[in-house]
């Protein structure tokens, strides 16, 4: 049953990819949706057996690598963390598959698309079920590959090509750090399986490791590089620019990859390696600060974006910041709880956005929408519920996890804890503002699009409607019903899946903080939503004046251009490397040294010398006599020089200098 859970998506992917031409769009869709739905039901059984009955399952399938000290097996570990992720991944993926059958019905390459979706799900399941770092890295790279294929699915669009390449390159930077971390683990621990590494970690406390001629604390340098991998995959500040651009792919891709599964792989990695991170207070502080800065930065950028999907993408980036700094505060269970909750309502928002885009003839600019409330009432209801859950509206799913994150941040009573609480609370205010702005501009404002487009808007058919309805149920209920089980006091839900030292446990402390700091995030969220609605409903002229003022133009430009991160990367970092690559790598090495001393240079020199020698064949006797005389003179001169030089070694040096001068002469002539 456990292996079937992992390999069913692969079977569906192979059937749709290899036999899609025979099966047709309907057959490929039917097989992939059936495989994913069945996998979800199996995931529910595994969740019951592993998490509720406390029966951890380990499967050693076959040996993979046996070389001296390196022993890697194809093994699967099913603990509470794994089965929770399996339930989330398979549920969201099966909904996205069902949604895609209608959303992509017009596309002639639907079987290929369904195959990519199922392959992505398979690699994500490999990532979360692996019992060692090497197998986890296979899934890690697999989801990166599938994200490239899915973002670039419409490969005739230049923007899709650029977005896919950008996602691949920025993820490679993070993956490079992850590889270094795994290599250091193998060099020092002589093992790569989780059980061995986590169990002997306390032995390596205070041990130093020499890296680039500097001595670092071993566990700190390992966790730093693991966190670099998480920064790339989970789009944290610095390597975040690929996530908004990835919206160039079809909307189901945005929902599956960039809301629920792939981007949460970094958070999963931090939670999985909690037995390592718990012994590095400095790296935990770094994780907290980076996560808090990401949450605040992405929330400010989302304020003034005009593309519907891009606003939701920046909200994803912001929520990932909350998850990361919760893990940095050693509250891994709270971070994973927010990961689970966020997956449902963010998938709901993305799929609802896709329904809107379908209704208005593929228009994504919110300024060209408006007045859709009565035209697409069901989608409007779904988007309102998703936005309220994202805001953290009381008694919806987001409320139960986001507020707990901010409470444990303040209850840490450290500088980084209060720093993350402050930025997280401001991020909650901005999140409420741009979420309400999205709903108002899309549904409630006066129609601002083309009349034929607005008049022909319609609610989608039953596949899309059913998908949204299935997602709205957990978006409302899952937080309330699972809070006590996942993060409740005295709950043994996580078992040994997540490790927290007694010094870092502050969940109880967070319950006894001042009520003002408990209520502040909710108050800021409600204030942000009310302010946004009031400004856009009654103060549109005031907003125009603010935007046209000198300071307003600069602020609008700054936030709309994403704090100029792309400009800095493109004009300074990217151009610098392009220049270095062209002037040194290409002109000096490729076209210079390699061409001169390589086959190209030797063949051209031999050809030219042969043509020169052939010209000596003049058919005149006195020319030949002259050449014989020159040859004899050279031979006698060489013999005399040899005798004076003292042997063969010095003669070789002479010959070497002669050949080098020959090359130099040829190059100067060229």
Automatic annotation (TrEMBL):
The chain crosses the membrane at residues 25-45, 76-101, 113-130, 136-155, 176-205, 211-232, 253-271, 283-304, 311-331, 343-361, 382-401, 421-443, 464-482, 519-538, 619-636, 642-664. Residues 514-636 form the NADH dehydrogenase subunit 5 C-terminal domain. It is an enzyme of class 7 (translocase). Core subunit of the mitochondrial membrane respiratory chain NADH dehydrogenase (Complex I) which catalyzes electron transfer from NADH through the respiratory chain, using ubiquinone as an electron acceptor. Essential for the catalytic activity and assembly of complex I. One of its GO terms (molecular function) is NADH dehydrogenase activity. It holds the Pfam family Proton_antipo_M. It comes from the Eukaryota. It is found in: Mitochondrion inner membrane. This is NADH-ubiquinone oxidoreductase chain 5. GO terms for cellular component: mitochondrial inner membrane. Keywords: Electron transport, Membrane, Mitochondrion, Mitochondrion inner membrane, NAD, Respiratory chain, Translocase, Transmembrane, Transmembrane helix, Transport, Ubiquinone. NCBIfam families: NDH_I_L (TIGR01974), PRK06590.1 (NF005141). The keyword Hydrolase does not apply. It catalyses: a ubiquinone + NADH + 5 H(+)(in) = a ubiquinol + NAD(+) + 4 H(+)(out). Belongs to the complex I subunit 5 family. Its main location: mitochondrion. Gene3D superfamilies: 1.20.5.2700. Residues 130-414 form the NADH:quinone oxidoreductase/Mrp antiporter transmembrane domain. Residues 64-114 form the NADH-Ubiquinone oxidoreductase (complex I) chain 5 N-terminal domain. Its EC number is 7.1.1.2. GO terms for biological process: ATP synthesis coupled electron transport; electron transport coupled proton transport.
């Amino acid at each position: 049953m456990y292996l079937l859970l992992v390999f069913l998506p692969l079977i569906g992917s192979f059937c749709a990819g290899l036999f899609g031409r025979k099966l047709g769009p309907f057959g490929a869709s039917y097989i992939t949706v059936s495989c994913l739905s069945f996998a979800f039901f199996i995931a529910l059984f595994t969740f019951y057996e592993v998490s509720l009955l406390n029966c951890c399952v380990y499967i050693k399938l076959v040996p993979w690598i046996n070389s001296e000290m390196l022993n890697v097996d194809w093994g699967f570990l099913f603990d509470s963390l794994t089965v929770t992720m399996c339930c989330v991944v398979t549920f969201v993926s099966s909904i996205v598959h069902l949604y895609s059958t209608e959303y992509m019905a017009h596309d002639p390459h639907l079987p290929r698309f369904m195959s990519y979706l199922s392959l992505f799900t398979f690699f994500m399941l490999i990532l979360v079920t692996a019992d060692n770092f090497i197998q986890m890295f296979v899934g890690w790279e697999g989801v990166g590959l599938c994200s490239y294929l899915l973002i670039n699915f419409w490969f005739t669009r230049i923007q899709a090509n650029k977005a896919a390449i950008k996602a691949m390159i920025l993820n490679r930077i993070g993956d490079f750090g992850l590889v270094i971390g795994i290599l250091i683990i193998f060099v020092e621990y002589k093992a790569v399986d989780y059980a061995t590494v986590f169990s002997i970690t306390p032995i390596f406390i205070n041990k130093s490791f020499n890296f680039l001629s500097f001595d670092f604390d071993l566990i700190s340098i390992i966790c730093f590089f693991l966190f670099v991998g998480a920064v790339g995959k989970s789009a944290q500040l610095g390597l975040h620019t690929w996530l908004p651009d990835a919206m160039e792919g079809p909307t189901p891709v945005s929902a599956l990859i960039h809301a629920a599964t792939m981007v949460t792989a970094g958070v999963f990695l931090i939670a999985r390696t909690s037995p390592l991170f718990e012994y590095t207070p400095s790296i935990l502080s770094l994780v907290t600060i980076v996560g808090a800065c990401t949450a605040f930065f992405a929330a400010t950028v989302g304020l003034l974006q005009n593309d519907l999907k891009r606003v939701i993408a920046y909200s994803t980036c912001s929520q990932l910041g909350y998850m990361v700094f919760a893990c940095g505060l050693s509250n891994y269970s709270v971070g994973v709880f927010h990961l689970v909750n966020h997956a449902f309502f963010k998938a709901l928002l993305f799929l609802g956005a896709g329904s809107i885009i379908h209704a208005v003839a593929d228009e994504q600019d919110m300024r060209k929408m408006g007045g859709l409330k009565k035209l697409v009432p069901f989608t409007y209801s779904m988007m309102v519920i998703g936005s309220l859950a994202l805001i953290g509206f009381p008694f919806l799913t987001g409320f139960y996890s986001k507020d707990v994150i901010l409470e444990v941040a303040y209850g840490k009573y450290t500088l980084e804890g209060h720093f993350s609480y402050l930025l997280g609370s401001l991020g909650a205010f901005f999140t409420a503002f741009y979420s309400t702005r999205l709903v108002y501009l899309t549904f409630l404002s006066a129609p601002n699009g083309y009349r034929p487009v607005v008049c022909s808007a319609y609610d989608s058919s039953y596949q899309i409607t059913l998908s949204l309805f299935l997602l709205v149920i957990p978006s409302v209920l899952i937080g309330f019903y699972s809070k006590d089980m996942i993060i409740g006091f005295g709950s043994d839900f996580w078992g040994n899946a997540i490790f927290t030292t007694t010094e870092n446990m502050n969940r109880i402390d967070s319950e006894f903080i001042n009520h003002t700091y408990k209520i502040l995030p909710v108050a800021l969220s409600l204030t942000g939503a009310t302010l946004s609605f009031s400004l856009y409903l009654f103060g549109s002229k005031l907003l125009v004046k603010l935007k046209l003022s000198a300071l307003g133009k600069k602020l609008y430009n700054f936030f709309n251009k994403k704090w100029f991160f792309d400009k800095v990367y493109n004009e300074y970092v990217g151009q610098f490397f392009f220049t270095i690559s062209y002037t040194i790598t290409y002109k000096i090495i490729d076209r210079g040294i390699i061409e001169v001393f390589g086959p190209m240079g030797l063949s051209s020199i031999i050809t030219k010398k042969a043509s020169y020698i052939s010209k000596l064949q003049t058919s005149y006797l006195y020319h030949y006599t002259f050449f014989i005389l020159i040859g004899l003179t050279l031979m006698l001169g060489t013999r005399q020089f040899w005798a004076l030089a003292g042997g063969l070694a010095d003669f070789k040096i002479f010959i070497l200098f002669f050949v080098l001068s020959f090359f130099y002469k040829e190059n100067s002539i060229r």
